[in-house]
Design goal:
The complex is a heterodimer of chains A (about 300) and B (about 475). Chain A has about 300 residues and is an all-alpha fold. In chain A, about 70% of the residues lie in helices and about 0% in strands. Classes of the chains: A mainly alpha (about 300), B alpha+beta (about 475).
Chain lengths: ~300, ~475
């Protein structure tokens, strides 16, 4: 019973904090550009505003169009229930790495359909680009998570990984872990439409990928989609924090452990957000046809992680 | 030179072989007749006139590609048909909604086949830019063809300029293309001041204004290129430098975009020694800033990958289309009015024309950077040489044909005025964006769709200047 309550409350914490971290990311980027930037709480206001607004739906769209935001949001809620955040032992044994990858894929597939539903050119362009990237993201995402589970004894259940890694001691800062984590970080940037894959702050019609797919959404639908994409980056960041570098995560549900768990996790997510902000400030968006190279590099990193498991 | 209309094509071609460029072609009413006026610019300005009989004339376009837009314009505004013109789409009058709303419908690009699509973009864009409709024919991401349909910001400025030649039209000239206000005003003033001797001090001050305008425009373009490649920090830095220049402008003349700084016969207000010292100090500081800004961009491999070989405009195409300004110079064409036909104080100072052969986004960026540095040098030279004296004089405008040619930040701006009995009967404006828009259509071919914004920005074309 305690486990269920804790699982639910850590999922709630994760959802509640995701707009804040999105705000921190924006604020950091603004400060790096010598701008004051909007408040870190602005994403909350944006989402609240979108929920109050009425929706406009293209006359070419079917029932699927209205349905998609709920599927996307639902899949992210599901993932936040599955991912260890503060406490390692969540709703086990449902938190499986492979099902996680495919829930991400479901989310992406639905978003692509949503982009096509509106019948606008930009949605179609965004969807076609997203599918091209998706083909390349999936293998490296899977392989990096496989390398991680191989390192910790072969279990793909997420709640088994942090205790196993911590149990292995400092020795786990092995090449396999570092390589898999770097590969995973590149897929984080690709999955979440960050620079150099996509420009999250652009609304230039012709270059959009993620924003292109959302272009026909408005009101509550857009609010849900925006919230889901903030949650998605939060889930990715906490996966790095909880699975690849789990030190500090609460293994038991004692209050002291939980306090350390919350503090260390917030610190880890904050550091990842700062790293993303730094990358976005110093890299130009890559030429579209150059992106496969970067994703291939990510795949090669996770392949190396796999190999190093067996030869080291 | 007055010639027969049948000979026009031959004469124009002969001039082009002799190093001239067709810079403007327009029609004017002369009593009952209509006269074709061709302005050729090279080391000097040549004017060729030919009276037209009836409602048509032989098109120049099959032999001189650069004439295409001018002939379409003539057909649209005067109803004179250029016989043999290969592309008679309407130039400015249209609507995307089709003929029922009063304009001509935009035709399909005509590229069909398995997997090819036509993407309509605009005229309303997701940014604070002018209105323009673009049609991209694509096969996947690569662009097979792009056609620009402009004219949404047409105001009829040319006919507003007509009337008494003694009337001060500087306010109108400033609004042709707001960010090129000084250049267009100078071109306008050249047409009415042709018989007036402007005081030397006023000439220097005008030159300083023109260069200040160039600097802030180029900073805006460089920042835009950075922003369109998602290079956020240099973009913010570039916009900061542009803002610095705008504040300097406000400080010295009272308007951020230098509007109202010029007046017929001179300048509106003298620059004090303090103001000149401020300009010099700011300009010297800027030299380091511009190098820092561009280095910040070019040191990023991901930016260079976007900029190099993107949006290539070859030397031959640039020459064929009669491209002007920084775009032409980035394709290796040595073309700068300030050097070729000096006006104001440009004849008295050293000026190096910046040139780059490669014709891509990077070349256009480099040319703009070098021009900022050159502008700083021009400003310091002007400040060193400027002497005390009056800053305006009385203007006397004689009858006849007067032309003003000025190098605006976007390239050569041409104003032609026909004055009869103290009245302007025909006023023709040729903004540098007008001949450069087809060059964008040409340069974008073979690039991918997501690269269009950065290529477009590197051309930095004006919508209002083109639409007039």
């Amino acid at each position: 019973m305690t486990c269920v309550i804790l699982s639910l409350s850590q999922a709630a914490l994760m959802i509640a904090l995701s707009p804040l971290f999105a705000g921190i990311l924006r604020k950091t980027k603004a400060r790096m550009q010598h701008r004051v930037g909007s408040s870190v709480f602005q994403p909350y206001r944006d989402v609240a505003k979108l929920f109050r607004k009425s929706e406009t739906v293209s006359k070419d769209a079917s029932w699927l169009f209205r349905f998609i935001p709920y599927v996307c949001f639902g899949s992210m809620v599901l993932l936040s229930l599955m991912t260890p955040f503060v406490l390692a032992d969540v709703a086990a044994p449902y938190g499986d790495l492979i099902s996680m990858v495919y829930i991400f894929t479901l989310y992406r597939f639905m978003m692509v359909l949503g982009g096509l539903e509106g019948g606008s050119v930009f949605g179609g362009m965004g969807s076609s680009r997203e599918m091209m990237m998706s083909v390349l993201i999936e293998p490296s995402l899977l392989l990096s998570l496989m390398a991680l589970s191989g390192l910790t004894g072969g279990s793909t259940v997420m709640s088994d990984i942090p205790p196993a890694l911590i149990g292995m001691g400092v020795i786990v800062l092995a090449p396999a872990l570092v390589l898999a984590a770097s590969s995973f970080f590149i897929t984080l940037l690709a999955e979440n439409a960050r620079v150099p894959f996509d420009n999250p702050s652009t609304h230039l019609e012709l270059t959009m990928v993620h924003e292109g797919m959302l272009i026909e959404y408005s009101g509550r639908g857009l609010g849900l989609m925006e919230l889901s994409s903030m949650m998605r980056i939060m889930i990715f960041a906490s996966m790095i924090g909880a699975l690849f570098f789990p030190w500090g995560i609460a293994l038991t549900s004692s209050p002291a452990d939980l306090a350390v768990g919350v503090a260390s996790m917030l610190l880890k997510v904050l550091m990842i957000m700062l790293a993303i902000a730094a990358i976005e400030s110093y890299l130009a968006k890559y030429r579209l046809f150059r992106l496969p190279n970067l994703l291939t590099a990510s795949f090669a990193l996770s392949l190396l992680a796999m190999i190093s498991l067996y030869i080291l | 030179m007055d010639i027969d209309v049948e000979d026009l094509s031959r004469v124009v071609r002969k001039h082009i072989e002799g190093g001239f460029r067709l810079a403007c072609l327009y029609v004017r009413d002369a009593g009952e007749d209509r006269v074709l006026e061709a302005i050729m610019v090279g080391k000097r300005i040549e004017r060729v006139t030919a009276a037209v009989d009836g409602d048509s004339f032989g098109s120049l376009t099959p032999e001189v590609s650069g004439a295409s837009l001018y002939e379409r314009e003539i057909y649209e505004t005067y109803g004179l048909c250029p016989v043999g013109h290969p592309d008679m789409r309407p130039l400015r009058s249209r609507t995307v909604w089709g003929p029922e709303s009063g304009g001509a419908a935009i035709p399909h690009n005509g590229i069909v086949g398995n997997g090819t699509f036509e993407i309509p973009v605009g005229p309303i864009h997701a940014g604070v830019i002018g209105p323009g409709h673009f049609r991209f024919s694509v096969a996947g991401e690569p662009i097979l063809m792009m056609k620009a349909y402009l004219g949404y910001s047409r105001r009829g400025i040319e006919s507003m300029m007509e009337g008494a030649a003694s009337k001060d039209n500087t306010q109108l000239a400033e609004r042709i293309s707001g960010d090129n206000a000084v250049a267009h005003t100078l071109a306008y003033l050249q047409t009415i001041e042709q018989d007036t001797k402007i005081p030397e001090r006023a000439e220097y001050i005008r030159t300083i204004y023109a260069e200040l305008e160039r600097i802030y425009n180029h900073f805006g373009t460089i920042a835009g290129i950075a922003l369109d490649t998602a290079l956020a920090v240099p973009a913010a830095y570039g916009n900061m430098l542009r803002e610095k220049m705008l504040r300097l402008n406000e400080n010295i003349c009272g308007h951020r975009m230098l509007w109202g700084a010029l007046r017929p016969g001179g300048v509106a207000r003298d620059l004090s020694d303090v103001a000149l010292a401020t300009i010099e100090r700011e300009a010297m500081k800027l030299k380091f800033d511009v190098n820092g800004l561009v280095d910040m961009m070019t040191r990023s491999p991901s930016f260079m990958d976007r900029a190099e070989t993107t949006g290539k405009l070859s030397y031959e195409d640039a020459l064929r289309l009669g491209v002007v300004g920084p775009v032409a110079r980035a394709s290796g064409i040595d073309n700068d009015v300030r050097k070729a036909i000096p006006y104001e104080a440009y004849g008295r100072i050293d000026l190096k024309v910046s040139k780059c052969p490669s014709g891509d986004v990077y070349a256009r960026l480099t040319v703009r950077k070098n021009e900022i540095i050159e502008s700083i040098s021009i400003i310091t030279q002007c400040i060193t040489r400027i002497k005390e004296g009056p800053v305006h004089t009385k203007v006397v405008t004689g009858d006849g044909f007067h032309i003003g040619v000025v190098e605006s930040p976007r390239g050569e701006a041409i104003h032609c005025a026909h004055i009869e009995n103290g009245r302007i009967t025909r006023y023709k404006i040729r903004d540098p964006s007008f001949p450069n828009w087809p060059a964008l259509e040409c340069a974008i071919m073979g690039n991918i769709v997501p690269d269009f914004p950065v290529v477009n920005k590197s051309f930095d074309l004006s919508y209002s200047g083109n639409d007039l």
